[in-house]
Amino acid sequence: MTGNMNFISRSCSCSFRLFSKSHDDQESNFRSQSFSQDSFNSSFSSKSSLPPSISAMIATSTTLHHHCISTYKPNSSDILSLTLSGNHLISGSSTHIHLWPRHPATTNTTTKFISMPCNSAVKSLHILNENILISAHQDHKIQIWHINKLKIIATLPTIKDRLAKILFAKNYVEIRRHKKLTWIHHNDAVSSLAVSLDKSLIYSASWDRSFKVWRRSDFKCLESISNAHDDAINAIVLSVEGFVYTGSADKKIKVWGNNRRDKKHYLIEKLEHHKSAVNALAYDDHVSVLISGACSGVMIASERNSGGGDGGHMSVVGALLGHKKAILCVRIVGELVCSGSADKTVRLWRRSVGKSYSCLGVLEGHGGPVKCLAMAAESSGDGEEEGGGYMVYSGSLDSDIKVWKVRVPSAVEEDSMANFVS
Description:
The protein is mainly β. The chain has 2 helices and 33 strands. 5% of the residues lie in helices and 48% in strands.
């Protein structure tokens, strides 16, 4: 199976639990990026994983309205990445980048809208602007595409950047015994991408344990943070303030700041809440919350501390439990958190008053692990957002992309239903 990913089985009820740093979890230690059936065999009791003094709030909401309105079938390749741009849904597989209609007109779609062949598996996709797409690949490269012209603008590192570094010994780093590369090269799969708020910087994270910063204007590599983690980096996200969050197979999340004088990144804090490899990150700037998903099947919500001080940069506010196997992808749109898992399901969660999260529903239908997600609030015909309406796109290792239409009831509607039932 493509992608070399490792998952662990975990039996959890759909719930939100308060979480502390002293949490003694029974999770296995393994590298997240190698797929192994043996790693599905572990299980644990979610209740026994938390101290008895910490209570659970069980989600009982069944009011989510959803249905699958279409299934895209690109080919026999695993779907590894998804993103949205204008009226397009863009998917990356082990062989191609495909562009699809964002709003499908038929129940099942087998004809590709646009297809662009790739030399290597597409691990991550990110939109730089409406016409420019960035793709990260298994073969250690990053490619910049012009969507409308269906052509590659640049491959990073660029030839110009490489020629400027190749002649000087100080630009080389040892990547393994008796082998060196210039510091601008990734030497393992590029797993994740992020773009700064002003679109001037591109960030890439890799299984080579580093993340790099590229200038958008000429695609020059400005900085490489080598050995940022002790194992593969699986995810990187940014906040509007410029903080960088990296999640790794070493079970850690690291928070990085940017020195305003020399523009270099420095480590602010290490978050060691997970007891297994961290696969996915999502950050919500509106409430300053980081959602992280791990191989254990647990997602953890950490909130930014406005005052900093002895409390650190981030504090854990809760754990989202419900998935039975590894979390592979997480997205946040508005009040909703969407998660995809090796248990072949997509779960939707809502953040409510008191920093609690409830699982609104489970989207089922994939025949393989859900590797990637895209999500957007649904718009009405006049361009206004429809209340409670969302489009969710899920890509799986079963080679399918499913398009879901979701309507989330308002708090008033939920209260009315609860009163009616009572």
